[in-house]
């Protein structure tokens, strides 16, 4: 049966799914199955009457097994082999391209205020972007050939039915689609002269001398050096101060200019009236402390604030922007896509966007914290964060003699384990220069020992493996004759990791052990620890026990 779009035409909203399911094919119209009914409930709860929407799909042909992936090919080789066509970064089967052309005509005839793109395929068809988790909630301008239109992508209702905890996020996206918007007129100063920077910072200092000023601060780093420093004094106005510059290997400024600028930055971010706002600012503070000897103030951290209000949810700035900012368009890939050959303006604009998004998110998070009655709890978290930073700066004293002795003892045990395994295998070695060779371990497990197959998830498929988890399972399930050597291999792998991670871990310049302490790292509000911003340290809270 032919599946046709349903709903009024023209319509305020055009809701675009991916492909029809079994119930849609039977009914001849889209969005009538369980996921369609869930989508209608989401629209209604978000203030969008479903009867004001027109519903369609990228393709009206049902994919095999209801898997839209069947209409894509993952490589050029398979694409060419199966007759796929390369379109907007994907190898798509002709049925999808026919659907996109039909969608173009549907958009022209429906003339919607906004297209709501449900799922990855609809996002790609409308905008050419890929990755619904990143792009959801973005207020975008889509285009199909010569037709431009407004788009807000969000999760497909079928996904929501599998991940109910994400439903509230989809509701926020629908609400965003129901608002009028235009891209803000940002005022970014991104290639300033020395005079521009000093004048701008002097203006801030003058204001600070009279009253409290909120400032969102963010740094970008390269090769573990500060590449640029962004400061925003509103949700639309920001300055990016370049430090490194690909056009000049010695830096953007001469030595005296950079010194004066750093001194002025210190005056700003340490001023008693400076209300400094940051996103995971403990990272930036490490750089200010280590590179410039500056102990920056911090009044609000948007990551901590959101974590306090909604523990267990995503905390990245892009997610916070999608929830708390009036205008949101995903931008966090811009720093990854930056090409040094075309200059650094894109990186500097990215830095300014981070600053203004942090500023605006913080303003709206204030209302959330107050509404949830979490003012006292958030204040406690900020105090805890300050204590954690003190611990990070000080570091932990290390008994170097005991550390060296531990490394030596582990080396001896590892040698004995290796000799034992090689003796048992008599001529076949599973070891490479960095420990157990994955390839040789596969040969041992499946060609020599002929052990039961174990699989790991590789994307959406499963691949044969002889990894740590597989060896652990074999130690408890295979014939007893294989267990001693498998247990020795398991212990060798475990001790090698322990040795490199703990016994041989690098100490900092003063012989102390440092790590990053994250106050917002766990849903339960316990600390989490990891390497610091400069690659020192490790997880200091979860040392392996003897049985591990």
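Q: What amino acid sequence fits the structure above?
A:
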């Amino acid at each position: 049966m032919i599946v046709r779009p349903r709903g009024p035409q023209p319509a305020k909203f055009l809701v675009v799914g991916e492909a029809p399911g079994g119930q849609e094919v039977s009914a001849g119209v889209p969005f009538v199955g369980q996921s369609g009914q869930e989508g209608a409930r989401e629209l209604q709860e978000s203030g969008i009457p479903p009867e004001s929407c027109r519903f369609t799909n990228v393709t009206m042909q049902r994919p095999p097994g209801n898997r839209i992936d069947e209409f894509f090919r993952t490589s050029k080789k398979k694409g060419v082999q199966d007759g796929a066509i390369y379109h907007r970064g994907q190898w798509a089967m002709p049925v999808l391209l026919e659907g996109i052309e039909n969608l173009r005509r549907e958009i022209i005839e429906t003339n919607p205020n906004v297209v709501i793109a449900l799922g990855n395929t609809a996002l790609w068809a409308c905008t050419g972007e890929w990755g619904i988790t990143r792009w959801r909630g973005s207020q975008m301008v889509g285009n199909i050939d010569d037709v431009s239109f407004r788009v807000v992508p969000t999760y497909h209702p079928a996904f929501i039915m599998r991940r109910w905890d994400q439903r509230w996020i989809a509701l926020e996206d629908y609400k965003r689609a129901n608002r009028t918007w235009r891209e803000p007129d940002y005022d970014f100063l991104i290639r300033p002269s020395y005079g521009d920077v000093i004048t701008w910072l002097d203006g801030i200092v003058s204001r600070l001398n009279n009253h409290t000023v909120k400032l969102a601060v963010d740094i970008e780093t390269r090769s573990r050096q500060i590449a640029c420093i962004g400061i925003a004094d509103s949700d639309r106005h920001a300055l990016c101060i370049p430090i490194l510059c690909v056009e000049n290997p010695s830096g953007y400024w001469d030595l005296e200019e950079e010194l004066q600028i750093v001194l002025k930055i210190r005056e700003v971010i340490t001023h008693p009236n400076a209300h400094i706002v940051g996103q995971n600012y403990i990272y930036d503070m490490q750089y200010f402390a280590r590179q410039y000897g500056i102990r920056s103030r911090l009044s609000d951290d948007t990551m901590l604030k959101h974590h306090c209000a909604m523990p267990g949810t995503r905390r990245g700035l892009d997610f916070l922007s999608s929830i708390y900012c009036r205008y949101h368009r995903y931008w966090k890939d811009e720093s990854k896509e930056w090409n040094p050959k075309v200059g650094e303006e894109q990186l500097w604009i990215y830095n300014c966007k981070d600053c203004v998004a942090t500023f605006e998110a913080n303003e709206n998070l204030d209302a959330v914290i107050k509404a949830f009655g979490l003012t006292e709890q958030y204040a406690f978290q900020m105090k805890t964060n300050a204590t954690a930073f003190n611990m990070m700066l000080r570091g932990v004293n290390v008994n170097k003699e005991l550390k060296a002795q531990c490394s030596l003892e582990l080396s001896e045990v590892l040698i004995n384990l290796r000799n034992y395994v090689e003796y048992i295998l008599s001529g076949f070695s599973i070891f490479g220069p960095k420990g157990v060779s994955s390839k040789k371990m596969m040969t041992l497990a499946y060609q020599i020992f002929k052990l039961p197959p174990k699989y790991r998830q590789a994307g959406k498929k499963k691949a044969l493996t002889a990894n740590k988890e597989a060896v652990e399972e074999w130690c408890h399930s295979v014939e007893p004759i294989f267990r001693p050597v498998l247990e020795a291999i398991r212990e060798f792998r475990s001790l090698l990791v322990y040795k490199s991670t703990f016994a041989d871990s690098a100490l900092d310049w003063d012989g102390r052990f440092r790590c990053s302490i994250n106050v917002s790292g766990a849903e339960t509000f316990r600390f989490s620890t990891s390497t610091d911003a400069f690659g020192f340290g490790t997880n200091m809270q979860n040392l392996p026990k003897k049985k591990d």
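Q: And what stands out in the fold?
A: Residues 187-394 form a domain with the Nucleotidyltransferase; domain 5 fold (CATH 3.30.420.10).
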